[in-house]
Amino acid sequence: MQIKVKANSVGEGMANILVADDDCAVRMVIETVLARTGQRVMTEENGAEAIPILKAETVDIAIVDLMVPEVDGIETLSVLERL
Questions:
Q1: For residue 43, what pLDDT is reported?
Q2: CATH class of 16-82
Q3: How far is CA 23 from CA 11, 27, 81, in A?
Q4: CA torsion angle for 77, 6, 42, 45 (degrees, to 10)?
Q5: Where are the domains of the chain?
Q6: Is 54:18 a contact under the CB 8 Å cutoff?
Q7: How confident is the model at residue 12 (pLDDT cuts 50, 70, 90)?
Q8: Most buried among 54, 58, 77, 79, using CB within 10 Å?
Q9: Quick one: which of 68, 24, 26 has its CA closest to 49?
Q10: What's the pLDDT at 11?
């Protein structure tokens, strides 16, 4: 897998990626794979935890499980769209 990212606020070739998934194993696999490519990966268990990060950080890519507890992925992406 090859990831190409344009220069951004983090640095050339590095993206800020947010992963929101209630399955710890899924979060760990995604984080490990993306971190090996030099990306900055932030992980959270659900939308309620992801939303403050979306508001506080510049997130280039959000990988969000649609069926997570508390605030689901659809609502999380709706918040992202409004930012």
A1: 96
A2: alpha beta
A3: 29, 6, 24
A4: 30
A5: 16-82
A6: yes
A7: low
A8: 54
A9: 68
A10: 56
Q: CA 15, 24, 59 angle in degrees (round to 5)?
A: 20
Q: What is the tens place of the pLDDT at every residue in 55-71?
A: 999 999 999 999 988 88
CB of 65 within 8 A of CB of 26? Answer: yes
The tens digit of pLDDT for each residue in 13-43 reads 789 999 999 999 999 999 999 999 999 999 9
Q: Count other Cβ atoms within 10 Å, centred on residue 2.
A: 4
DSSP H helical ranges for 1-83:
24-36, 47-56, 73-82
